[in-house]
């Protein structure tokens, strides 16, 4: 079933349309990808979905309810959306476990602890629960970041160039790992990247962003077999 629906989305900076009438839909459990060169507006779309960038025209809906339009905007913290960033954005003064537990303040402490352990196991970092971010490699920090984003059980995960700071080999391995982790939870996600190989390896739907819209929104198979 359809989880995310973006309809005729327009986003502006200083009266300039960065996104200009973009539409897409994403089914539950699918990993979508926004592909395009730096500056084409990929992050702006993610920020609009997360509620950090205003929508000038059109709408964004999650599970059939509008979360953003020109007249309505649900507060970012109320959206069932988790984010993973290129620079990991972990809290340096918190342990790995505390980072993963950060979004779980509403859970009673036993449940929170159980959830944190479960997430650490899922990303294969149980042994590092009491370490600090600076003691971990880039790939490990990115897995912590994913665990933290998934812990509150959001409906949608947004991944903004998550592998850009990693070397090529690690990138390949981690992108497949992360695909497996997302799939194991039937998590719906959108990946933003400028790397075509990454897009094809990880995603079920790929859209190329050009001139503020998606030129095509299709499976890797169909894109590859385009004449
Ligand atoms: P991408 O993620 O594809 O690199 P962005 O969404 O970050 O692209 O940026 C899209 C365009 O919006 C770029 O031309 C960028 O210069 C512009 N832009 C981004 N942030 C701002 C801002 N805070 N103020 C004005 N223009 C911005
Ligand atoms: P609190 O006192 O609010 O429980 P803590 O600083 O002990 O805060 O930990 C923050 C979060 O990380 C909490 O969700 C806690 O349950 C979790 N946590 C801390 N250390 C561990 C650990 N070693 N294993 C699993 N969860 C942990």
From TrEMBL:
GO terms of biological process kind: quaternary ammonium group transport
Sorted alphabetically, the Gene Ontology cellular component annotations on this record are: ATP-binding cassette (ABC) transporter complex
Claim: Protein transport is one of the keywords in the record: no
Q: Does the keyword Iron apply?
A: yes
The superkingdom of the source organism is Bacteria
MF terms per GO, please? ABC-type ferric iron transporter activity; ATP binding; ATP hydrolysis activity
**Residues of the ABC transporter domain:** 4-227
Give the keywords, sorted.
ATP-binding, Cell membrane, Ion transport, Iron, Iron transport, Membrane, Nucleotide-binding, Transport
What is the name of this protein? ABC transporter ATP-binding protein
Please give the organism. Answer: Alkalimarinus sediminis
Q: Which part of the full protein is shown?
A: 2 to 228 of 356
């Amino acid at each position: 079933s359809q989880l995310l629906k973006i309809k005729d989305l327009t986003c502006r900076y200083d009266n300039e349309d960065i996104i200009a009438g973009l539409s897409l839909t994403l089914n539950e459990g699918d990993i979508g990808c926004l592909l395009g060169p730096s500056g084409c507006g990929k992050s702006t779309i993610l920020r609009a979905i997360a509620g950090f960038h205003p929508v000038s025209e059109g709408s964004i809906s999650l599970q059939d309810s509008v979360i953003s339009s020109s007249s309505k905007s649900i507060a970012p913290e109320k959206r069932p959306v988790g984010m993973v960033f290129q620079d990991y954005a972990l809290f340096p003064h918190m342990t790995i476990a505390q980072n993963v537990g950060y979004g779980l303040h509403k859970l009673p402490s036993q449940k929170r602890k159980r959830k944190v352990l479960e997430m650490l196991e899922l990303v294969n970092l149980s042994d590092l629960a009491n370490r600090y971010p600076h003691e971990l490699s880039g790939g490990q920090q990115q897995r912590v970041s994913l665990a933290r984003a998934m812990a509150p059980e959001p409906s949608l995960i947004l991944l903004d160039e998550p592998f850009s700071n990693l070397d090529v080999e690690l990138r390949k391995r981690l992108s497949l790992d992360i695909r497996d982790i997302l799939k194991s939870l039937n998590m719906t996600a959108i990946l933003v990247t400028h790397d075509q190989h990454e897009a094809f390896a990880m995603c079920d739907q790929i859209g190329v962003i050009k001139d503020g819209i998606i030129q095509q929104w299709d499976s890797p198979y169909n894109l590859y077999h385009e004449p």
